[in-house]
Amino acid sequence: MDKQRPVFIVRAEREGEAEELNLEESICSIGWGNTPNPFERTREDIKAFGATHWLNDKGEPARDAPFMIWRFARSAELDQAVIVTPRLAPEHRGELMVGICKGAAYWVEDARGDEANPRLRRPVRWVRTDVLRTSLSEETQEWLKSRRHTVRRVRIEEVQQELRALAEEHAHE
User: Fold this and answer.
1) Handedness of CA 30, 91, 156, 162 (dihedral sign)
2) How many whole angstroms separate alpha carbon 23 and alpha carbon 16?
3) Environment class of residue 67 by beta-carbon count within 10 Å: exposed (0-12), middle (13-18) or buried (19+)?
4) 56-94 pLDDT, tens per residue?
5) CA distances from 80 to 27, 100, 116 (A)
6) Residue 37: partners with Cβ closer than 8 Å, 6 or more residues away
7) pLDDT at residue number 92
8) Fewer CB under 10 Å: which end of the chain, C or N?
């Protein structure tokens, strides 16, 4: 596996509502019910939309949401990235799904567009779905614990290496 392959953390919705869909359809997905199609809007359009529609727990605009939607949809970096998804559904809490992204994002117009069926998707080959967080180094566990973003690139080299190794270990099975 390419040692320069980027590693991204992608959350399967707020409480893991899209985990089963992602596994069943071999995808990684994001989006909220009112997410506009990022292939038909400019980044500025999405930013303006997000300022009034995507609010954080304090009722303020979620500053990173438009950027995360745009990046997930448009970034070529993600086309072959290692994807790590913290499992949030209660029966899987503490586990991670690890996969390799297999191409560009696409928009599903006829999806419900809710937390369990987001419209913005990327194809992924999931290579592990049961990695226990506690099996990872303390540094990686701390990094994962401190990140609650929907899409975030891993920039700490040691954390990248450990998560890439997980994907590589099972990529040929």
Assistant:
1) negative
2) 12
3) middle
4) 778 888 777 777 888 888 888 888 888 888 887 777 888
5) 13, 6, 24
6) 107, 109, 119
7) 80
8) C
pTM of whole model > 0.90? no
pLDDT tens digits along 105-127 = 999 876 666 655 778 899 999 99
Give the chain's domains with CATH numbers. Answer: 7-170 (3.10.590)
Helix H, strand E, coil C: the string for the chain is: CCCCCCEEEECCCCCCCCHHHHHHHCEEEECCCCCCCCCCCCHHHHHHHHHHHCECCCCCECCCHHHHHHHHHHCHHHHHCEEEEECCCHHHCCEEEEEEECCCCEECCCCCCCCCCCCEEEEEEEEEEEEEHHHCCHHHHHHHHHCCCCEEECCCHHHHHHHHHHHHHHCCC
What the block records as the tokens of 80 is 């072959």
Q: Which two tokens stand for residue 12?
A: 């399967």
Tokens 């419900």 appear where?
112
